[in-house]
Structure formats: structure tokens, C-alpha cells
Input
Amino acid sequence: MKYNNIFFLLVIASFFNSCKEAKESDLERFNLNGKVKVVNYIYKEASEKFGKVIDGKIIADSLVTLKFNEKGQLTDSTWNNHKYLKKIEYDNKLRKRETCYHNKSIISFKEFLYNTDGKISEKTNYDKSKKIIRKEIYKNQGNLTIVKIYNTNGDLVGSEILNYDSNGNLIKIKTANRITTFKYSDNIIIEKTETETEYEEKDINLYDDFSSTETYKETFIKKNNYDINGNIFKYCEIQRETQVVPVGHSEPCLFHSETILNYDYQNYDKFKNWTKKIVKREFYVDHIIERKISYRKDN
Output
């Protein structure tokens, strides 16, 4: 089933990618409250009988365990027999190093530099032989941050523009083919929308008596809606393909595909972390996710 791998890819993406702001911990990125030590995710099959959701058997290859240190940083992520570790070292408050392992083998290094107000100024990715494979340089201009991205040869290969509101909330990320926007209510995120143009091309056809220009464009839109606790309660993914041609020569072609997932949170613990949620595709029950959360004794 697709959702097993999709969830784990999201976990690994968060595991290996640093947030734009130095102040945000991994616990905050996973929207976890309290001094969390370990989180176990369990996927179960589910069905609906006369309006009641019935738990099914545990889905194979769906067990995920996350471990956090005292600072709220994700240091250990396990998916069945795949074990990912992250070693974090600080030279001082302005420099951080991360070494990532998969089943005890080093797979990557990262180094982060921060300015005196705690914002990231530079991020460098290395391969296992410590060769630079990517470097990002951040230039802060008030509520605007410009990120320049360089490859292993030092060539500029991309850029990002980050916009923040007056409260320091990230409200927009813009790249060459993707725009991500965020909406807040009282500084709490309520919506995230990502629009990406996968490709766009034009074909010019020459004929004896006329020419025809055809434009192809494929767009992906992903949208998350959040509840008052910061949990996603609705996810929507839309894929659109359009072929536009001159009127009178042929009809435009439009392909539209839409996937909607709704999340129904059933149980919470005393720290207001959810422990069970039902996932629905459109209005049909798809599966259940349970979380077993362990906290530090000084919580």
C-alpha cells in the first residue's frame, strides 16, 4: 500500500533536512508537545460498519520509531529493519555539524552556520567522502531572505526567496517552478499550499498555409489544512495537465486528477498530542494511525 512508504519518506525528509529557522526544534516540526523521548507509529487496516470505524490488523512494513534528545532534536529514526541515526555536534552557537548514518554506515554530512540573531546564514551538504555536493547561502533583508544554491563545482544552480510576516512567520517560499504559501491565525498555521509546475513546453508546427503553436503545461497543487492544535486535518493533491492550441484548429485538452485525504483525530494524551487518527480518502475510511509516546521523567 502506498501510504506506508509515503509516510516514511516524509519522516526521512524531515530527518535529513534542516528547517529554515534555527530556533525551531524537530519536536516542533512534528508538532509534538512536552519533552518527548520516543514516538512509535503503528498503521492498521480499518473499515466502516454502520457508521462505526473498526480496527483491523497491523499493516506490514509500517512500523516507525522516532527518538529525540533532550534538546528536541530527532537523532534516531527506524523503519522496520532500516535504522537512521543522526549525530549532532556544536562548535559554538554559530556552527552545527550533522553526521547521518543508515544501518551504521555514514551516508552524509551537513554543516550549518548561523548569525548572531540565531538565523541560518549558510548550509553545506557533503557526501560520505566529505566532498561538497550542495551549498546554500542565506542573505537576510528584513522580512525577506534570499537563498542562493550552488552545486559541487560552485556553480549557481538555483535560488529561493523566503518571505516573513511582521511576527517572523514564514508566509511564502518561491523557487523557479514552485510557490509555497502559509496562512496563520494568531500565529498558528492554518493552511499550507504548494503549487509546482512540473514542465511547460511549446511546439511550433509549420504547415503549407498556416502555423500551429501547442503549449503543454503540467501543474501539481498540494494543500494542507490545520486545526487549532496544529495538526493536519485535510490534505489535497491536485494534478492538472493542459494542452492549449489555437482556436479553430483543435480543441484544448484538460486532464484533472484530485486526491483528498481527511484526518479525524480520535484520542489525545495529557500533553495534547494525538494518539489515534482515522485517515479517509474522500469520505471512505482508508486506515488508522496510532502513536505511542514516551516522555522524559523530568517532563
Summary: Residues 177-264 form one domain. Residues 1-6, 18-23 have pLDDT under 50 and may be disordered. The longest helix spans residues 2-16. The chain has two helices and 19 strands.
